[in-house]
Design goal:
118 residues; 48% helix
Length: 118
């Protein structure tokens, strides 16, 4: 699991260096991120939800888990994952969960994280 999460860190860092079209939105990301509630970006497939989330967090200390990864799903252990995230992303302020719907019981896990202040 550590290798999968570490490789996703490399993927995240590479994605953050790519040029993207600036999309205009009515939302102020700084204001949204000051609120500690869970943020959910929804919409049809392939419209840029993941890219928007990355751009929203660019320049901030954030951890990244992409559940469009069979290695991560097959080895999933929430306690181990959180420990590895703390190791790979020390002091992260935000946690970006991409394609989280692929994880069985994701909503219960996210609720637990929220109650713990993650």
């Amino acid at each position: 699991m550590r290798t999968a999460i570490y490789n996703q860190r490399l993927e995240r860092d590479k994605l953050l260096t790519q040029p993207y079209l600036v999309r205009h939105t009515e939302y102020d990301f700084d204001t949204l991120l000051q609120n500690h509630n869970v943020k959910l970006i929804t919409g049809p497939r392939r419209v840029g939800k993941s890219t928007q989330a990355l751009l929203m967090l660019k320049g901030r200390n954030f951890a990244y888990l992409n559940f469009d990864d069979n290695r991560l799903l097959e080895l999933w252990d929430e306690d181990l994952a959180m420990s590895i995230l703390d190791e790979i992303y020390p002091g992260y302020e935000f946690l970006l969960l991409d394609e989280v719907q692929n994880l069985k019981g994701w909503d219960v896990w996210v609720s637990k994280l929220y109650r713990r202040g993650v």
